[in-house]
Amino acid sequence: MDADTIIEFAEIEAPDEHARSAAIELHGKLIKPAGSLGKLEELGVWIAACQGQSPPRPFTRPRVVVFAADHGIAAKGVSAYPREVTGQLVGSLLTGGAAINVLAASAGASVRVVDIAVDTEAPATRSIGEFKVRRGSGSIDTEDALTDEEVRAAIRAGMKIADAEVDGGADLLIAGDLGIGNSTPASVLVAALTGSEPVAVVGRGSGIDDDAWMRKAVAVRDGLRRARRVLADPILLVRTAGGADIAAIAGFLAQAAVRKTPVILDGLVAGAAALIAEELAPGARQWWVAGQRGGEPAHALLLDHLDLEPVLDLDIRLGEGTGAVAALPLLFMATRILAEMSTHDQAGVSGPLTPAPTS
After folding, report:
1. CA-CA distance, 198 to 187, in Å (whole number)?
2. Tens digits of per-residue pLDDT, 203-239?
3. Residue 113, SS3 per DSSP
4. Among 63, 107, 57, which Cα is nearest to 335's?
5. Are strands 288-290 and 172-178 parallel, antiparallel or unpaired?
6. pLDDT at 357
7. Of the residues 25, 150, 320, 340, which is catalytic?
8. Helix %, strand %, coil % for the chain, to 5?
9. Is there a catalytic annotation at residue 8?
């Protein structure tokens, strides 16, 4: 095999245990009962471990990268929207009018859009098409989503984008997705990697009616039959039953872990890519936190498989990174608690009469 086609990730190092222990110890000294801030304490400890220091540094450049792509399976009527909406929504993101633009601005994050496989050559996408693999993808119920060359190009694109963002100063990353029909290949991948049946993973996606749900269930069933034949190889799996966006996000998430940069995971599509990323780079999930639990049944399955407990439960299933960005302010808070809250000694506040339980 040509060296250019080989996909290799550096060994994933675990977040720093000394910083984790120091953050836990610091929480025990702050002017509050131990554990009384619940999940905020857990998040702060995780951030300290990821940064390798306690107290952790406040985030200065959280970055959302939205990977846009079309999917051939959309032609089978699995979505409530026509596939040309993908390109139209890319235009909205570029002008700042999409949901992720509004939420990211509110949460203090910036947004980048990448056209990885949108089925258009519209001028609005040319400036963001440096890593474009193809226009759309194959219909995964009857054909592969990508060629071998394309899937590897997409994974490498995700890796390069992660490197560029970290090198540019990003200290927290979020991968968003945008594409009509993308929950169908994502559901196939989740079913394949969690050993689930189609009926357990098929959700309402974009708000489909019962007829479209049945079409989607058939598409997932047929895609899953094809996916199970290549289950042992994550690259073949995403080539067969995924898409360029999912492949690129997988590369992005795995490389973020290589670069020791924390990630907030979004919903179903990014989560399916996370399953692939963990297969490609075992241990990468230690660098991710789940932003929220969405409304798709497959999302709950993949979070359980990755052993990730979501920060929020808001039933957000839009994609674009919206569910992850909704959790971002809580990570800001968790970081500042450790960095700015007074200890008992500093404030002259008496501690508890008895030590807090250790388990």
Report:
1. 8
2. 998 889 999 999 999 999 999 999 999 999 999 999 9
3. strand
4. 57
5. unpaired
6. 60
7. 320
8. 50, 10, 40
9. no
